[in-house]
Every structure is written in structure tokens, then in C-alpha cells.
Amino acid sequence: MCFILVIIFWVSFSAYLEGNALGNLQQHSANKRKALNAARIEGKYPNRF
Asked: pTM for the whole thing?
């Protein structure tokens, strides 16, 4: 039971962090380009961009 709660918390927390990151990227287009390029180089989110 505790393990399930930890998984639920982690998923919601990571979604919250990702939402904040996307919000910040939308406010700063130059930083957005840098972040998108860095994400491509690192192989993160390969299907999103």
C-alpha cells in the first residue's frame, strides 16, 4: 500500500515539475530554443519536439 502511494506521489510530482519547466520555457523563447536543443542532444523527450 505504501509503495503504491509513493508511486502516485512521484508521478504527480514529476508532472508538476514538467509543467513548471514548460511554463518557464514558454515565457522565454530564447531559453526555450536552448532547452529544446539540449533536450534533443541528451536524447530526452525524443518524440515531443
From this structure: 0.37
